[in-house]
Amino acid sequence: MEEEMEQVRRYFSSGRTREASWRKSQLHGLHRFIGDREDDIFRALLRDLGKSPVESYRDELGILKKDINAALDNLADWMSGKKIKLPLVSFPTTAELVSEPLGLVLIISSWNFPFGLSLEPLIGAIAAGNTVVLKTSELAPASSDLLADAIPTYLDSKAIKVIQGGPDVAQSLLHLKWDKIFFTGSKQVGRIVMAAAAEHLTPVTLELGGKCPAIVDSLPTWDFTRDILLKRLVSGKFGSCSGQACVGVDYIIVQENFAPTLINLLKGITEEMFGKNPKESHAMTRIINAHHYKRLKNLLKEDGVEASVVYGGSMDEDALFIEPTILVDPPINSDIMTDEIFGPLLPIITMKRIEDSIKFINSRPKALAVYCFSTNDKFMRRVATETSSGSLLFNDTILQYAAETVPFGGVGESGFGRYHGKFSFDTFSHEKAVLRRTSLPDFWFRYPPWNDYKLEL
Ligand code: NAD
Known about the structure:
This protein is of the alpha/beta class. It has 16 helices and 18 strands. It has helices at 2-13, 20-36, 38-49, 53-79, 116-127, 141-154, 167-175, 187-199, 223-235, 259-274, 290-301, 335-338, 356-362, 377-386, 399-402, 421-427, and strands at residues 82-84, 94-101, 104-108, 131-135, 160-163, 180-184, 204-207, 213-216, 251-255, 309-311, 315-316, 321-322, 325-328, 345-351, 367-373, 389-394, 415-416, 429-436. It has a seven-stranded mixed β-sheet, with helices on both faces. α5 packs across α16. The longest helix is centred in the N-terminal third of the chain and has 27 residues, at 53-79. The model has no long low-confidence stretch (mean pLDDT 96). Residues 108-112, 117, 135, 137-138, 166-167, 170-171, 184-186, 189, 192, 207-209, 246, 340, 342, 368, 415 line the site of nicotinamide-adenine-dinucleotide (NAD). Nicotinamide-adenine-dinucleotide is lined by residues 108-112, 117, 135, 137-138, 166-167, 170-171, 184-186, 189, 192, 207-209, 246, 340, 342, 368, 415. Belongs to the aldehyde dehydrogenase family.
């Protein structure tokens, strides 16, 4: 592996990947891969996760195609130097910021969006002119095999390598010296990545998870618009990889007196989306593996938690299926309310006053996203100014992931660094300050010996 990395590093030194033509050809290659192999990608996602092709297109392929096109359209602008103003003291110097590639970068990705989370950072890394090693997730083997098999035929295999394997392989890679590590995954492994990066002072971006709350303050009174917002909320949980999404809704907060109405509405919309027998629904993704199935089952079986189930709750270990499940006020210190759920279990926490949700959110680690459904401008302003999260979205869920003009990333324990669109380009670049000086004018007092200005103590 080390020898192979050395070859990639030497290729970077050749300067080929810095050329705009190389970057463009790689972006075109990636676009061709997604277009030519669309059917294979759908099948791989179906095999790994039971994902519907519509969900796969909505959350992965569609976003990737759009973001590759945006990178192609904007590449010349992103690569061009940006003039900087200078203070008078440096007159008549000119200065600009020039983005240069970092070198050889390592991308470690996760299984829940195995194409999106591998290729989205790859777009930024190649647009910025880097060579790349991509370590895919062993938990989505069909997707990982397809990437490892196809990427070398669509992209420059001297510059971009796909490496398959689990934690052992990731650990061996982490011991090597990189110019940047971009990691998507859990907090626990994020710590391992950061410790390994410290060894070589390698910069890291950590795209981690956490518990994303959705505050439901109020909904529109007109049924039609109310149901649209409810669909966005329910889809942000059960309709996005069955809750196995880093920006998915983890739990809902609602005021006590609105809770019975909201719960009834949520039950109705959930049934509308997944039917009376969700196990038969093509829109439900399955749980990724037996380990995660057991983890979710344990969350549900904890003392006092199962008793709080008001909807769903059925499971099938052989099919790795868990029904969309709604719980009301499970014990606040139970694991389901302290650990990231990452599955189709939806706790609803009721509060006397909806304003208390702000204090509750602030008492927890900072989330990757906070969602808030409200018709009250004053309350929305309070949520915006008094809570902190990677992103904040009013009256919808997950949309921020799909907009390449919006920086995507966490804060606090949900990670640091940001990407998508130009933010990806910046994440994989060093912005170098380049100053140009003329020989005149100059000032004698800049230089020693300053003999006439001696100060005695
Ligand atoms: P994970 O941390 O278990 O695995 C992520 C990657 O790290 C995989 O490629 C895996 O092979 C590797 N890995 C696992 N154990 C390792 C170890 N001991 N040493 C080195 N590498 C190791 O996470 P996961 O199960 O793939 O994903 C779930 C987590 O990722 C959730 O917390 C979720 O919120 C988060 N996530 C975040 C984002 C985001 O964009 N912020 C997206 C998806 C998932």
